[in-house]
């Protein structure tokens, strides 16, 4: 048993770590999950400037990815629809309507030049063996921009999840420039579907946002047109949510039509007697026209899952940009110095006719020695040790190159190399300035492709109770004792919405709060039924006269019902009480007939109810008189005074 438990614990930890690091959570360095990184690597491997069948890319990617072709295909389509790295040809689906892409054998793709500009340099990329050891795949790409917040991501791992919203590339690069310049910056999400976005609770990537559809109305207020939709929805799901709300009587619509093509256009026709301003709040409250999106910026950094803020991501990548650019400059500097050394050797080798020294040499060693000796007078020009590889390369120069040797062309190339080395030296000394220039270059060349779509706007979340239409007629049938909006042949008591609550007081002086019922049995002789909203409960006073069965004296009680637990039965009067009369009227008096000691008939004693305090629902009543009584009733006070 101990062995099994140990095996389980070890395997579970290994599985959890794998899912977190190698499947679900993106890496901060390049913003990719492993499958996305492998797709980009496959596109680089097959890049020849022409379109490739997606099926071919998927097949190639399986050399890197151990989880099958279905996940590769869906990830490639999603990545391509970001319109950032991949040039598409064919039907890649529609992000507005939710229509799927065509099969992999029918669509094609290739890398955009932007990809290699910001993402790929194999000479400074760290590689590791693929799952079967046959190929090498990048650990991460040396990305020059914070792709993790540009692309966005969503993933669920063991015990953790990430939800990163996409941001506008232009705004992100401007924020990175501001970071390098030491200025403050703020970033907010942007969605390809457009709409409105309330970021008041975004909390730098770890809060929530509200995303709303952009809605227009016609002049006659009889037609609603949805032009842009919230993030995470499509026209199909949005229409389904509207139809579901209409079926549940939450909103009133006549007909709904979808005319979406390249742009969203959903038309909602309203029925007679209903206008747009009565429906729009309901669309935001009861449908996907408004969605709340919680965010959690969880990424892999230093081989560990870490929660970061958007600001921290930009600052991290500002530093990474300088590191990557420095590596590239150093790499280019080394390559240029190698070229300069090679060209200098070639020039001296040909100009000074050193090749003539090897004509009579009879061994390889003698040839090498003759060449090396020939360069000795010029060592101050060479500035680097001459290796056997250098000599071997010189000996392989074709005779026609020697005969056609152009000294001016060689000098021009050397001058260009020296000029570029001078530029690199300046850039290395002013790396921040060079990084800012690089980012500005991207903005100039590619900025026009990335226009903000979602409008930042502050709006209050619509309360579903306020938006719900009171279109339910709550009736009570005193013959059958049923209450609800589906009761037939009953008296209409009030109008309600499906989100309202109802207070019901029965003839035994018990009360209960419940949701608006469709049809429920209350019993014959119901005393009261009304909405249990704050306004009604604050303004309604329940007055009752009851008999104390222990002494037969009359008591009066006045109270308000302001607190309750749903579907729990409460008592209005004490256990020893017997309800005699009940009212919610204010301008009334209790008229009580007491038992008489003589044969003379009394008109009864009058007690104006306004003289008695309104107390809590748990309070006991006030004794009217220490005398047994026969009956009681409520009479309008003004009537008594006039008589």
UniProtKB/TrEMBL annotation:
Gene Ontology MF: a single term: ATP binding
InterPro entries in the record: Topo_IIA-like_dom_sf (IPR013760), Topo_IIA_A/C_ab (IPR013758), Topo_IIA_A_a_sf (IPR013757), Topo_IIA_dom_A (IPR002205), Type_II_DNA_Topoisomerases (IPR050220)
SMART domains: TOP4c (SM00434)
UniProt keyword annotation of GTP-binding present: no
GO terms (BP aspect): DNA topological change
Active site positions, chain numbering: 106
EC number: 5.99.1.-
Keywords annotated in UniProt: DNA-binding, Isomerase, Topoisomerase
Pfam families: DNA_topoisoIV (PF00521)
Catalytic activity entry: ATP-dependent breakage, passage and rejoining of double-stranded DNA
Residue ranges of domain Topo IIA-type catalytic in the record: 25-472
Gene Ontology cellular-component terms listed: cytoplasm; DNA topoisomerase type II (double strand cut, ATP-hydrolyzing) complex
Domain of life: Bacteria
Broadest EC class assigned to this enzyme: isomerase
UniProt entry tagged with the keyword Nuclease: no
Protein family (similarity comment): Belongs to the type II topoisomerase GyrA/ParC subunit family.
Name recorded for this polypeptide: Topoisomerase-4 subunit A
The species this protein was found in: Spirochaeta isovalerica
